[in-house]
Amino acid sequence: MKVYILLALIAAALTLILTALVRWCCLRWGILPPLRNRDVQSVPIPRLGGVAMTLALLLTMLLASKIPYMTPLFATTVPWALMGGAAAMCILGVVDDLIELDWVAKLSAQVLIAGLMGLGGVQLVSFPIFGLTIGSSRLSLVLTIVVIVGIINAVNFIDGLDGLAAGIVAIGAGSFFIYSYILTRIMGAPSYATTASMTVVILMGVCVGFLWYNFHPSSIMMGGGAETLGLLLGGAGIVVTGQIDPALLGDGQVFVGLLPIILPISVILIPIGDLVVTSIRRMLKGRSPFHADRSHFHDRLLARGRGHREVVAILWLWTAIIALPAAALLVFSVYKVAVVALPVLAITVFLTFYEFPFLRGRRRKNLQEVPAHDKS
């Protein structure tokens, strides 16, 4: 555990330093993309924060490869595939932020990166429920691509407010680390060092470090970062399915087998819900599901609620109340989790109604009158 904590702290510290450096370079050399109609800021600000985040993550993982406790993990291709995928996705995100790629080109590149990462070993080959194994290598690769690309776009879709995506992924990665680490102990592994645990704890550190600059009002945006966060979160979810030996799961631990599927979904439930609802709304209007507008959950909440930070805090809270109980099921019974989670859920519902009066029927300004930026 000490090594994991150290890696998270190193990742946060490197992100703090590198983000400041990237921001200075952007201001010094005028790398400031022009404002778009959907942007929330009144003056241009740097958008290449994802570069600093990705560099911090890669450097921390390279450092981890030199730590004896973690070195055996890098004897396989999996961590290197995750690192290569992260670097490629960051480059794609930066290019898209600077020149706004056509959605077909962007999606094709995402599929290619996810496919190459799958060929590198990050592949969904089995489900830990009843020991079900995917019989076809082609089907395994296709399912891997679908899962990873879906999560990439879910996270990217919700990157519309300062600190929102970084906070949600930090909460999700933290929950995922708790699950992966405890699972390793339950499985009786000779070493508690796993690629999934290492990846998500470093991811959590990177997100926490970036929030120093990205929480409202943001001084730098996550250009090229949201897609990378989604890729790593999805990749870790796929890798962790390989940690489970169904033969070691007793009848009382049925949730242990279900959680590799439940937890990734719970972590991205808010982004996935936003992705689905927003895409349907856009298509009903005759637009591409990737067409950028102000119809995301956070945009609508801003339009009818109170403040920027309140919206972000409520969405963070909803993510935590979904993800943390899912991880707690690994150790505690459903009854014990419910005893704690249900009162917190009730408080969250109350706060949501309180912070967003439109849920009580009060009408606010029209959505088009309130600016909000969208990164998708």
Q: Which structural category fits the helices and strands? A: mainly alpha
Radius of gyration: 20 Å
Order of helices and strands: HHHHHHHHHHHHH
Indicate the percent of residues in helices. Answer: 55-70%
How would you sum up the global shape? globular
Distance between the termini: 36 Å
Poorly predicted tracts of residues? 358-376
- β-strand number: 0
Beta-strand content: under 5%
Structure overview:
By secondary structure, the protein is mainly α. Helices cover 64% and strands 0% of the residues. The chain contains 13 helices and no strands. The longest helix has 27 residues. It is globular, with a radius of gyration of 20 Å. It starts with a helix and ends in a 21-residue tail after the last helix. The C terminus is likely disordered.
Write the layout of secondary structure elements.
Layout: H1 2-28, H2 49-64, H3 78-99, H4 103-119, H5 137-157, H6 164-186, H7 195-214, H8 226-240, H9 254-267, H10 269-284, H11 297-304, H12 308-328, H13 334-355
Helix pairs in contact: 1-2, 1-7, 2-3, 2-7, 3-4, 3-8, 4-5, 5-8, 5-10, 6-7, 6-8, 6-9, 6-12, 7-8, 8-9, 9-12, 12-13
List keywords for this structure.
0% strand; 376 residues; single chain; 13 helices
Tell me briefly what this model is.
By secondary structure, this protein is mainly α. The protein has 13 helices and no strands.
